[in-house]
Amino acid sequence: MRSYEPQSADEAADIVRDAAARTERLRLVGGGTKVGIGRPAQDEATLSTTGLSGITLYEPAEMVVSALAGTPLAQVQALLAERGQMLPFEPMDHRRLMGSTGTPTFGAVAATNNSGPRRINAGAARDSLIGVRFVNGRGEIIKSGGRVMKNVTGLDLVKLMAGAWGTLGLLTEVTFKVLPVQERVTTLVFAGLDDARAVAALSAALGSPFELTGAAHLPAGCGASQARTAMRVEGFSDSVAYRLGELTKLLRRFGAPEVVEGEAGTDLWTAIRDVLPLAEPVDTAIWRISTAPTHAPALTAAVAAKRAARWFYDWGGGLIWLATAAEGDAGAAAVRAAVAKHGGHATLVRAPDAVRAAVPVFEPLSEPLMRITTGLKAAHDPGGLFNPGRMYASV
Q1: Is residue 199 within 8 Å of residue 294, measured between CB atoms?
Q2: Fewer Cβ within 10 Å of end Cβ, the chain: N or C?
Q3: Residue 384: beta bridge partners?
């Protein structure tokens, strides 16, 4: 298979124009850590961003960072850490879950809208993404957004590219707003709650004025013999101390929590972020399900009534990570039926190629949404060059 590795946006545009003339379908790749997500490739060549590397702008006072799409994510995070700053949305590292060995890249964070536990407080990656440069399917270089947050009218290309999984264009540069690292990070951990009581506790805490930056529940067997319900509080030390005390009083009916700080707390949230409790065994299928937090326990129970499964909750119950056997349809019928009944949407994140070719990987779209999706694809990639069929068979 032919492979392209442009060293500049202009070179990438030339490659795309030549590919368009030959109707050569392209698989867009960054560091290769998420290549197993989506439907199996229907392409004829790869177009990599690894040659597009380097931080192009960093203004700590303005809390803005820009980098070329192939820049290693760790490089950007290290630079931010030197100035006491961070990406607000805590992007996931997929390598353990996907069994991949590549390097996470800055552009892929935007392309996949990669957002971790802090999303409940800071928003998703797309909420901090304020500027993009990309090459469309005609080989044109497009710039959208800038260095400041602003209101827009018409089609917001910045938000459109976030989560498009490379189906609309090749990102060459992205710009994010950043936030200061917090002075103190502390986690309250309640032990032994069942799913329903855990979600009730998380909902009570999230509905309080005491501002959580993480809210997760790991049932027994997800990394420990006893169920754990975790609530993260960050900020100035005095503020954190006050909020911990108030949360403990508010949630006294759920028991006395353990206070976890330092490396133990970091390790806990890294495991939640990267789905480590479900990463093994590697031959299981992994689903990512979004729903209303209060519906989460009933949704997982509905799946479990039809097939064996393990799961845990993030985002206060709004995000379910679920593992089940990869045989047959990898639980697609059970998961889709549960989502249809209880609301939400589901993505099959990990499964063998044969399964991902046979069942919808991303949540099936209604006819009106599919018309919009195909229209956007036709507008930005009229030749259908980029990641054909990765999200939907016809797109």
Answers
A1: yes
A2: N
A3: none
Question: Token digits for 269?
Answer: 């949230």
Torsion of CA 216, 217, 223, 227, to 10 degrees: 150
**Under 8 Å between Cβ of 364 and 344:** no
Cβ-based neighbour number of residue 78 at 10 Å: 10
Domains of the chain plus CATH, in order, are 1-181+366-395 (3.30.465.10), 184-273 (3.30.70.2190), 276-358 (3.30.70)
pLDDT digits over 50-102, tens only?
999 999 999 999 999 999 999 999 999 999 999 999 999 999 999 999 999 99
| Reported pTM | 0.95
Task: For Cα atoms 321, 90, 81, give the angle at the middle one, nearest 5 degrees.
Answer: 155
* Per-residue pLDDT reduced to its tens digit, 220-255: 999 889 999 999 999 999 999 999 999 999 999 999
According to DSSP, residue 114 is labeled -
| Token representation of residue 275 | 């789905």
Cα distance between residue 322 and residue 300, in whole Å:
8
Q: Which two tokens stand for residue 160?
A: 């459109």
